[in-house]
Fold this protein.
Amino acid sequence: MDALKEMGLDQNTLIILSSDNGPVLDDGYDDQAVKLAGDHKPGGPLRGGKYSAFEAGTRIPAIVSWPKEIKKAQVSDVLVSQIDWFRSLATLVGATLPKGAAPDSYNRLGNWLGTDNTDRPWVIEQANDHTLSVRTKDWKYIESSDGPAMIPWGPEIETGYQKAPSLYDMRKVNEQENEATQHPEIVYKLQEILKDVRNRKL
């Protein structure tokens, strides 16, 4: 940031700070991360962590700075996917993506720049064992999995894997109550989205 300012480029440079997954403290490194973290919870109130189907594994931070275009600071809870950077940045620079490239990427540039607060209709998430989830603004469906309930090596992280499909009300932050049996119509709707994505119809 200092270098950009020195060169007079700080106002017209788009800077993106993000992550590739949720937090993990004990990932095989001898860095005393667990001890040094103390009472700090890097996933905040979210359940799970890196590798997990729960939100602390798949929800990631994203900070966007571009003073020339983003005039005021704001915090947004709009539902987007990191895969959308591909088509969004292509749109920004007027590039045409090759045919068949990034079929699941959508132009959500307005979301990133704070000019559009409409949510993406849904996002597909993937956990460590390739278990897929469908996330909408209000709901999260996690497909059934034979995987273990906890990561079997090192980090003490819940995976979110269950023998039966799971449905969580995302207005309740911590994903504690599986509501699949209470809302079979929502489970069906999200299962159909996942089925269509797998068949590449969307």
